[in-house]
Each structure stands twice: as C-alpha cells, then as structure tokens.
C-alpha cells in the first residue's frame, strides 16, 4: 500500500520490449499534447497483453531486480497472480 492507504501500482518491462519498435511512450495525440484528462505519459507495449500498457507515468526506473519493489514480482498484476511476460512467445 502507498501513503494514504492507496494501492501502489507499478509495472515493468525488459529492455528488449523497451527498445522494440512497437513500444510507444506517448506524450502527444495527433501532434498535440495529450488532452486533459489524459495529459500524461502513456506506455503501450504492443507485444504484451493490455495490462502492460500503463497510463499516467510518474517515473521510470532501471533496476536489476524486482525484489525490493512492492510484492517483488515485477508489477501490480504479477503480484496478484498474473504472469510477468504475457505476450507472444515469438520474438
């Protein structure tokens, strides 16, 4: 839990997906800043299922282990039983 009793949401991707040409870190829509209420960075990781497409990024961190982050499994959904990599097995 985060401060104030709210759930702490975090997500992770590996460097292969981060650098993949289909991965998008968007800050504009049709050449204009994302409109309110969507004004924030948005992440789309096309090679993985929808739960890897985080909205409203607050920070980006590079880590060598998930052990000290929340439940230690690589993401909010993974901490709740989902597989870490839920995309195509074909790379």
Q: Could you write a compact summary of the structure shown?
A:
With 91 residues, this protein is mainly beta. Helix content is 9%, strand content 13%.
Q: Report on the biggest sheet.
A: 2 strands, antiparallel
Going by helix content, strand content and strand pairing, the class is mainly beta
Shape: globular
How many beta-strand elements? Answer: 4
The largest sheet has its strands arranged as 1-4
SSE ordering: HEEEEH
What does this protein look like?
The chain is mainly β. The chain contains 2 helices and 4 strands. The protein has helices spanning 15-18, 76-79, and strands at 23-26, 28-29, 32-33, 42-45. Strands 1-4 form a two-stranded antiparallel sheet. It is globular, with a radius of gyration of 14 Å. The N and C termini lie far apart (35 Å).
List keywords for this structure.
91 residues, mainly beta, two-stranded antiparallel sheet
Show the helix and strand layout.
Blueprint: H1 15-18, E1 23-26, E2 28-29, E3 32-33, E4 42-45, H2 76-79
Antiparallel strand pairs: 1-4, 2-3
